[in-house]
């Protein structure tokens, strides 16, 4: 019996993240030489005409205005979900029930109950599931993680994380979907989940939180803003370290900043997503007169950078990280070790976000629930 060499892909959503998924599916085999080659089978969007147009642009064989038709398509083996957050749960659960693998953008859902339902549906199905936390795929983050695991900066005692963008900074901007309660908490689940995914890789999970949220603008176009653009959290990590996380969607001048500082007993590692191809390393070695941070610029020695570019210093971008994520998903589907944010870890991140929201409401420290299944 011949081994399967292709996998049928269905994509729900044609916006920014939908296009990112399409680019990744188109590029992954050429970049990594995967045996399991994606076939772009079916694309769905609420607007059937738009779905048809984007299917032609992205290279999908079929298009539909009904995502349920895509999930039911027998040629589709894996479903990419790049629809708005409130629809993730229904789509993912239906895909699992149809026996499909799922690649879903973050966050899992806008409620804890929906996220839990997604996790339970995935467990019942036995299918592979991954969440779209592509920043963990960065060769720079991978190298930082390896240095920490090798004890280069000693025992971690403090971590600081910041995520800032300015797409909600204009006080005169119109009311948007992300200003309504139906989109979630705001900066917490729209933003903070990304630095939390990095924290999980670099220092481990969060045990308890103390959080404050803020609304810089109470109303837009006469409608009350129901979400918070700013969230600030004190953290206690499961390993005993302290931490600080700040997320701000109204930070003028910041475009895609995720700043991470990991402080240890023997050194410090620092990173900024706006300079995503480098990180800073300080170790307390050598003559104090010449000690200082040094810049580590990524190159082919930092896998999987070399699959894209044979020379150091040329740099990878956001969409390249999505290609790496697609490669890891294909590896998982093939039964190989993979570096992904699973639904298990994703639900633990969701639990952290919901604990942060409860802390804001109660004005007190809140313990994060133990990971699902533990």
Distance between the termini: 40 Å
Taking the sheet with the most strands, its summary is: 9 strands, mixed
Over all CA atoms, what is the radius of gyration? 21 Å
Number of helices: 9
Q: What is the percentage of strand-forming residues?
A: 15-25%
Principal-axes geometry comes out as globular
Total number of β-strand segments? 17
pLDDT < 50 runs, ≥5 residues: none
Structural class: alpha/beta
Arithmetic mean of pLDDT: 95
Record keyword descriptors for this entry.
17 strands; alpha/beta; 374 residues; six-stranded parallel sheet; 9 helices; nine-stranded mixed sheet; globular
Descriptive overview:
Helix 4 packs parallel to helix 5 (112-125) and helix 7 (187-202) packs across helix 9. This protein has nine helices and 17 strands. The relative contact order is 0.15. The longest helix has 20 residues, at 343-362. The chain has a nine-stranded mixed sheet. Strands 3-2-1-4-5-6 form a six-stranded parallel sheet, sandwiched between helices. The protein has helices at 16-32, 48-58, 67-72, 88-97, 112-125, 139-149, 187-202, 318-333, 343-362; strands spanning 6-12, 37-44, 62-64, 78-81, 101-104, 129-131, 156-164, 206-214, 219-220, 223-224, 230-237, 242-248, 257-264, 267-272, 278-283, 294-297, 366-367.
